[in-house]
Specification:
By secondary structure, this protein is an alpha/beta fold. The protein has 2 domains: 170 residues, Rossmann fold; 132 residues, Response regulator (Rossmann fold, 3-Layer(aba) Sandwich), CATH 3.40.50.2300. It has 9 helices and 15 strands. A 7-stranded mixed sheet has the order 1-3-2-4-5-6-12, sandwiched between helices. The chain has a 4-stranded parallel sheet with strand order 8-7-9-10, sandwiched between helices. The chain has a two-stranded antiparallel sheet with strand order 11-13.
Length: 332
């Protein structure tokens, strides 16, 4: 999948936020590049930032970081959310094209579903950089920058298996199926857990990255498996939902829960012992890289790096290092 992943074989209406604002200094020439020129100009014009769901702390950090970084470089910004809906995403891409933006930073709504939307922007000569999730075609986006989900799932599953003493029944909360990250993490978990035959899966539910759905699906799983001993979740929001269900059932002290993302609520849950571990996705670092590369494309015509697909390793967060995390930034 990605050249930096040492586990590549594991495979890896619109909510418009009125956040448009004038950019700050640091943009070089006062004359902006021609909109959609895709290279050879100076920093300037507007970057359209399309995230997924800013009510989720992970995507809020992504959007806030992108906006701040773009404005530091001298751009105006618009921020919107596709809510993981391809049709909403298409509408947002069309709006960006009509607005003649200089570039688009996109967290795509599905690997296959987003190819046509990216193609539409490329046809309009607007450079696109993808963040957090990839699409199933190369050569369209100027860059695809994601967390090393296979590596992250591996280190998380190893820590969780150790906490389980390598035995017992467990259930899985799976993310949104159209998001390639959901399957990559699930496969990464499975590759580790399959090494321990005394760990037995007794249920799996799709909870679409959502805390409320995570709680509801965990309640259902508990009704069928009241003595379950572990939970592996594809992200922190689903894991936190599972923790809520376990608390209500007065079973939290009997069940080991694993999360993924490193949001602050999850880090606090790790500190308190409610969660065994979470896997920090370096979304702030990745988003800074993405905006930097999009700026480079707008100004020079290329990202300045050799690879379109780029993965950044994740960090395992346990009680021992949880104090080093602040809003998705690890300082250890």
């Amino acid at each position: 999948m990605f050249t930096r992943s040492r586990l590549a074989g594991l495979a890896a209406g619109a909510l418009m936020l009125s956040l448009a604002a004038c950019g700050g200094g640091g943009g070089g020439s006062a004359e902006p590049a021609a909109s959609g020129s895709g290279g050879g100009g100076a920093a300037g014009g507007t970057i359209a930032i399309i995230t997924v769901d800013p009510s989720n702390p992970y995507w809020k950090a992504e959007a806030d970081t992108a906006k701040a970084e773009a404005e530091k470089l001298g751009y105006k910004t618009t921020v919107s959310a596709n809510n993981n809906d391809p049709e909403t995403q298409n509408q947002l891409i069309e709006t960006a094209i009509n607005d003649k933006v200089a570039g688009i930073l996109l967290d795509p709504a599905g690997a296959d579903e987003s190819v046509a939307a990216v193609q539409k922007a490329v046809d309009a000569k607007i450079p696109v950089v993808l963040i957090n999730a990839e699409i199933s075609q190369t050569g369209l986006a100027k860059a695809q920058i994601v967390s090393n989900n296979a590596q992250g799932a591996t280190i998380g599953a190893e820590e969780w298996a150790k906490a389980m003493n390598y035995k017992g029944t467990y259930v899985e909360l799976f993310g949104k199926p159209s998001d390639n990250n959901a399957q990559v993490r699930s496969d990464g978990y499975k590759a580790v857990i399959s090494q321990y035959p005394d760990l037995k899966s007794v249920g799996k539910e799709i909870a679409n990255w959502d805390r409320q759905q995570g709680q509801e699906k965990m309640e259902s799983l508990l009704s069928k498996n009241p003595d379950v001993k572990g939970v592996i979740a594809g992200n922190d929001e689903m894991a936190l939902g599972a923790i809520n269900a376990l608390k209500e059932a007065k079973k939290l002290d009997q069940v080991k829960v694993l999360g993924f993302d490193g949001n602050q609520d999850a880090v606090d849950a790790v500190k308190s012992g409610a969660m065994v571990a979470t896997v920090l996705q370096p979304i702030v670092e990745a988003t800074k890289k993405a905006i930097g590369q999009l700026d480079s494309v707008i100004r020079t015509g290329n990202t300045g790096v050799s690879e379109e697909k780029q993965a950044i390793d994740c960090v395992l967060i346990t009680k021992e290092n949880a104090d080093n995390v602040n809003d998705f930034v690890y300082s250890g």
